[in-house]
Amino acid sequence: MKPVSEVKRITVVGSINSDVTAYVREFPAHNQTVLARESTLTVGGKGLNQAVAAACAGAEVTLIACVGDDVFGTMAQTYLKDKQVGISAVRQVAATASGTANIMVSEGGDNMIAVAMGANACLSPEDIQRHKALIEASDVLIVQLEVPEETVREALKVARDAGVISILNPAPALGSAGELLRLADIVTPNETETQEIANIYPGNPGDAAEAAEKLKQKGARNIVITMGSAGYFYDLEGEARFVPARKVEALDPTGAGDVFNGVLAVALAKGKHSVLAAQYAAAAGALSVMRPGAEGAAPSWQEVETYLGGAGRI
Questions:
Q1: Taking the model in full, what pTM does it have?
Q2: Binding site feature residues
Q3: Which residue pairs from 229-235 have beta carbons closer than 8 angstroms and sit at least 24 positions apart in sequence?
Q4: From first to last of its 314 residues, what are the pLDDT tens digits of the chain?
Q5: In angstroms, rounded to a whole number, what is the distance separating the alpha carbons of residues 265 and 8?
Q6: Fewest CB within 10 A of the end CB: N or C in the chain?
Q7: For K(+), which residues are the binding ones (predicted)?
Q8: What does the DSSP assignment read for 218-240?
Q9: Hey, where are the domains in the chain?
């Protein structure tokens, strides 16, 4: 057992991107050009977003990542420091561009994202070994798949050997992610990622339950399937249930899944039962969609507790 500490330490292994977001009335058809009502340039990437979400929720967070030697890499590191995320394990790669994400958000609140890995592709198992002690000293590790699969595998193995709780957010999905599912303590796919891995789209509670069973057959032990505005389905520690979402006015869903994972990690680090931790995470995700963009969307722990009406509810 790891010693109990008041300071909750989260390590995130993942991506850093610059996000170019266009807000459109509706998505363009094939070969169609549409006018956006506005566009923004912000920092993002699943690794950065999840690290910031965990930091906003009060954890001590360190990000293991790579950036290019460009203005976007500098911007991201400045932003992380401002958000109290440790960047001692962020490596700058010479003669390489930082990762980028091109995002479109429709008036209906849906989004489409295309990601270019850039320097994220340079994050290696050697980086994990170089910063192994960071993971071993953590309460929770978060990983996603915007960095090389072998690097994610190495991080999960370090966490498993050290008795550190690990969360795998399998995004973007890999059909070959079987070994990673077995290494992680909790797996958190969304609907499309679930379909990619389990070949079942969780469009309703019944299909979500069936998809969760498929994921367990592939090696996942504990699962939370996020289902957007519908809610989420969990299969955690032998208990399975669909939880409908509270109705909110979604302004921008970009990064909501990352907020979910960051706050899930903090709740677990605080000793919350996994079912209650998922509820905290869902509340944080709901709060984030009411704010524009991924940057600045993550709520504080107090905001989450206030939204839930105190110490949480089942």
A1: 0.90
A2: 17-19, 45-49, 146, 190, 226-231, 252, 254, 257-258, 288, 291, 293
A3: 229/109, 230/203, 230/204, 231/282, 232/278, 232/282, 233/202, 233/205, 233/208, 233/209, 234/274, 234/275, 234/278, 235/209
A4: 455 567 899 999 999 999 889 999 999 999 999 999 999 888 989 999 999 999 999 999 999 999 999 999 999 999 999 999 999 999 999 999 999 989 999 998 889 988 899 999 999 999 999 999 999 999 999 999 999 999 999 999 999 999 999 999 999 988 777 889 999 999 999 999 999 999 999 999 999 999 999 999 999 999 999 999 899 999 999 999 999 998 887 777 767 999 999 999 999 999 999 999 999 999 999 999 887 665 678 999 999 999 998 544 54
A5: 10
A6: N
A7: 252, 254, 288, 291, 293
A8: TT-SSEEEE-GGGEEEEEETTEE
A9: 9-16+46-97+123-308
Q: Which residues are annotated as a binding site for ATP?
A: 190, 226-231, 257-258
Q: Which fold has domain 9-16+46-97+123-308?
A: UDP-N-acetylmuramoyl-L-alanine:D-glutamate ligase (3.40.1190)
Residue with tokens 């963009």: 293
Binding residues for substrate: 17-19, 45-49, 146, 258
Active-site residue identified among 127, 139, 207, 258: 258
Instruction: Please tell me the distance from the alpha carbon of residue 314 to that of residue 305, in angstroms, as a whole number.
Output: 13
